[in-house]
Amino acid sequence: MSSQTIYIKIDKNVLVHNRNITLGDIAKIECTDVGMLRKIRQKKVYSFQGMHAKKNQFQVFSILKIIQLIHEDYPNADVQNEGEADFIVEYVPRLNPPMGVAYLKTILLCIVIFFGSAFTIMAFNNDVGVSEVFSKFYMQVMGKESSGFTELEVFYSIGIAFGILVFFNHVGRKKITPDPTPLQVEMRKYENDIDTTFIENSSRGGSNIDVG
Q1: What are phi and psi of 108, to 5 degrees?
Q2: In a designed cystine with 146, which of 53, 57, 73, 138 is the match (CB 3.0 to 4.6 A)?
Q3: Using CA atoms, how far apart are residues 51 and 19, in angstroms rounded to an integer?
Q4: What is the spatial distance between Cα 31 and Cα 38, in angstroms, rounded to a whole number?
């Protein structure tokens, strides 16, 4: 049998909803032999334990273990890894929480964000003395005392709201530009750091699944 080249790509963090995972659940695979490709995708990789557990579970794998599993059926295959050397498989059970609970969480989150943001803006304005700056500027330009609610305060408030919309690149559910938002960029950095740390800790602790 001639040697076949198999290309495999796995992301650093793979999300699954089934406890019994196959290679097709976690990897993108390409091979010219359709029959071989079908069998490889159906190859069992791992089973998460605890049938009644409702919490997320994680397991770290080495790509060498995946290559070893493929070589069990196709020892002459040339497996080319196009993805990560180590990766995390995250099992998240399919849960359907009551809609009332989901709506309540959303409302509470909106309240916390609203009042937290308002307090942050007020604290910043108080620290830098925005009111005093506006009063002095209004006196210099208009030649009279500020009432505390002038054109400066109005346009400043509008500018803050507009600036937040532009900065976060969102108006409701719609994005202003196709670029990722600053929050999305920071979240991706955070997720990458978490995944890297989790993989390194698992490797040092010997809890990852590897060859040998």
Answers
A1: -60, -40
A2: 138
A3: 8
A4: 9
The C-alpha atoms of residue 134 and residue 155 are separated, in whole angstroms, by 12
- Which pairs with CB-CB distance under 8 Å and at least 24 residues apart come from 145-148? none
Give per-residue pLDDT as tens, 61-108: 999 999 999 999 999 999 999 999 999 999 988 877 788 888 899 899
Residue 138: which H helix or E strand, with range?
A: helix 130-142
Q: Look up residue 180 and give its DSSP letter.
A: P
- Strands (E) across the chain are located at 5-9, 13-16, 20-22, 28-30, 44-47, 57-62, 78-81, 86-91, 170-171, 174-175
Q: Where are the domains of the chain?
A: 5-95, 99-203
**CA dist., res. 125 & res. 201, Å (int):** 43
Torsion angle, CA of 136/141/142/143, rounded to 10 degrees? Answer: 70
**Six-digit token pair at 117?**
């943001």
Tokens of 24: 């097709």
In which band, very low, low, confident or very high, does the pLDDT at 45 lie, cut at 50, 70 and 90? very high
Which residue reads 């530009």 in tokens? 177
What CATH number has the domain spanning 5-95?
A: 2.60.480.10
